[in-house]
Amino acid sequence: MPRRPHSTSPHDSPRLAKKPKLQHLSPENFKNGVFLAPMVRSGALPTRLFALKHGADLVWGPEMVDKAMLNAERVVDPVSGVISYNGKSRAMFTTHPIEKPYLIFQIGSADPELAVRAAKSVMQDVSGIDLNCGCPKPFSTHAGMGAALLSNPDLLCSILTALREAMPPEITVTAKIRLLPTQEETLKLVERIINCGVSAITIHCRTRNMRPREAALVERLREIVDFVEGLGKGIAVIENGDCVSFEDAKRIRTITGAHSVMIATAAESNPSVFSPTPLIDVEETLIPAYLRLSKYFDHHWGLFKYCANQFHGPRQNVTKAQAQALHQKLSAAKSYDAFADIMGSRTGEDEFREIEEAINSRPDRHHAALKLAEEVHDNAPVSTPPNRENPEPPSLDAPLAPPNARRMPIPSVISGHDAVTPTPGGGVPLAA
Ligand SMILES: Cc1cc2nc3c(=O)[nH]c(=O)nc-3n(C[C@H](O)[C@H](O)[C@H](O)COP(=O)(O)O)c2cc1C
């Protein structure tokens, strides 16, 4: 993909006039928040920025395998400020200084030394390093990464310990795991992980063999949270699994006692679910803005197209036919130029400025967090919505599930349609 002329200089875009508020993360910053989960492909830079604009407290980048980062060339676009870590043919990971205070970089690794080298290669652009200990896909587990680490706790802990020792104190180290089959095993593993010096632990409340559409076992988390609190280290436990919105996060926190909640699938459909009032009519309110920003960022066309095609939500002004027509056009288009008609008079830079403004004018994190904590105690419903079923036998999970795999149904109030959410494809081409 041709890119604009670039600079390999290590630092920021001169356009970033305002200094981000949050400089370094501490364990406290992992509490009382609602976070964007790591998602291969779907957790691309524009999606993370829209999530931040609409209230995500922190955002995880998509998993990057350690070796892939070792030979990446870091380049900075002097126009937009976008930082790309380029492989031989394309950018493997892109970020922007505006998200740095909130960005956790996730590594896939089965080797402490490689993990440290990969972490060092990106640490100037991120605030934390997370170790993926949950991906059940064979490409991960065959190499001893992801969910394979759950049954190799010595290796898992040696990677976390190496990362903690090698990273400067202002870079947090965290881990994202799944539940183990028994509670006892899970508690043992969690204790070992906490003793590695992590700032937080995310628990995807499914076991390695559970399918994404099986209801997350959130009821199991309460005991784990109490256990971690009992360790007295002040480490945050982040719930992941089946949270569909900011409001729903209150329900999950009430059931589990978790300090924070992380959202994946629902945010893939609509990155504004972090707001108490998520966008509706995403074909008018989100996709054109996402398109403008992606074009301004010179964002990989195929990735844009893939992500934009995941966006769905409740509709008021947009008809079903209009929504379908836009998605068909997205599927058929070959470049950003095909969308001159919906670009409108706003520019991608306008979109970026708006996001920058929203991020810089977010309420003070401490007060926002306290407010969420109070609301959780006062208002949250405690029952699980009726459309969460726990059917079917075990299989593999995201990130690279087959394109037609079934997924957990998202309530229509969020998704705008009752069918299961489209799944990101293993075979989805990144090129147009
Ligand atoms: C498209 C997609 C990509 C994913 N990629 C990753 C990943 O890179 N790293 C990871 O730890 N989990 C990944 N996951 C799993 C999610 O982070 C999350 O654990 C899982 O989807 C459960 O959350 P949910 O119920 O909110 O969807 C991915 C999930 C999806 C849907």
Automatic annotation (TrEMBL):
Lineage, opening ranks: Eukaryota, Fungi, Dikarya, Basidiomycota, Agaricomycotina
Superkingdom of origin organism: Eukaryota
Organism whose genome encodes this protein: Athelia psychrophila
Cofactor: FMN
Xref: InterPro entries: Aldolase_TIM, DUS-like_FMN-bd, tRNA-DUS-like, tRNA_hU_synthase_CS
Known catalytic reactions: a 5,6-dihydrouridine in mRNA + NADP(+) = a uridine in mRNA + NADPH + H(+); a 5,6-dihydrouridine in mRNA + NAD(+) = a uridine in mRNA + NADH + H(+)
One function term, GO molecular function aspect: tRNA dihydrouridine synthase activity
One record GO biological process: mRNA processing
UniProt-recorded name of the protein: FMN-linked oxidoreductase
Record-linked PANTHER family: TRNA-DIHYDROURIDINE(20) SYNTHASE [NAD(P)+]-LIKE
Domain DUS-like FMN-binding: from-to ranges: 36-342
GO terms under cellular component: cytoplasm
Region (Disordered): 1-23, 379-432
Record Pfam families: Dus
Bias type Pro residues, positions: 392-402
Record keywords, A-Z: Flavoprotein, FMN, mRNA processing, Oxidoreductase, tRNA processing
PROSITE patterns (alphabetical): UPF0034
